[in-house]
Each structure stands twice: as C-alpha cells, then as structure tokens.
Known about the structure:
This protein is an alpha/beta fold.
Amino acid sequence: MKLSDSGSSMLRVITGSAKNKRLLVPANVTRPITDRIKTSLFDIIKDLVPRSRVLDLFAGSGALGIEALSRGASSAVFVDNNPQAIKIINKNLNNCGLLDNTAVYQQDVTEFLSSQSNRGQFQIIFLDPPFSLPQDQKLELADLCSRVLEISGLLVLRYPEKENYPHIYKNLEKKFTKLYGISEVSFYQKQNAVS
C-alpha cells in the first residue's frame, strides 16, 4: 500500500544554494517527505543547519540531507540499503551541485550506525525509517543515533502518528513534536548523560 502525506510527491529544494532544483524520487521504494513537511521541519531547525554535520538515514531521495546542504550544512552522509535509492541520491547531489563534502553508503542503517567508532561526529541526524518498522526497532535505532550525535545535537525522527514516543529516552530528550497528516515528527536533543 502506498502512503502519502499529500497528493503530490514532486520534490524540490526549498531554499539555499540549490533553491528550486527538482529532486528525483526512487519509484516504489520510498515514502517521500513532502515539500510542505520539509518546509515546516526546516523552519524549526533553520538556525542549527549552517555549518552542521548532517546524517540522513533511510535517505530515499536524499531530500533532507540535500536541503540541509543547500542551507549551508558543512557536510552530509546519506545511508540507504536500496541500490536504486543510492543512484537517485547521487544523481540529485550532482544535479544540485552539492557533491562536495558528502558520502553516500549503500548499507543497512543498523549496520552503518553500529560500525561508527567516531562518537559525536554529527550535529543533526534525520531518522525516517519505514512506517512498517516496529516501534521498538525505531527506538533501538534512536539509541544508536545518540551514540554518534554530539552533545546538544538534534535527532529528527519521523514516524506514523499512531505511534507514541517517550519524552525522555536514555540520553535523548524530546523538545518538540509536530503532526503532519499521517506523519508525526519529534525533535530529540542529546543530553550530557551516560548512555
């Protein structure tokens, strides 16, 4: 079944150096984030984006990481285990002129996070797993994300609105939640605590 937050799946870069560039979307592979959600999400975090190190997980088209780069993020890493998505991310980065300071990995997200030994290397992590992934697995991924997130860094977690996530999860504290149709997005900040 195909889920959508609005009628349109046409994606573009909202603002910044690649403003209005169209983004390709992998067919039948991903549940693309709409421009409406992306605009609202980046309005919330816009002051944190410039010069930040970004990680885009379950990246799909790469829309979130590309938007961050367009808005001045210093680097972005994209991870998706689907080969079609990886091709699309690379095409979108090239089309937007944003290949510098990027890395694209075709890898399982859990494996990628588990393999990272450099703690606190990212300031913003976008975690947009499949809606069908069980909630306990999403929480495990959030915990893995917190290990590579720097203190006070932000985890942006998107999930079905019917799911409910705790205010405090290990060393992550929910700062804000916003509902977008069938999607909910929570913004977790990493606290200075032992995980």
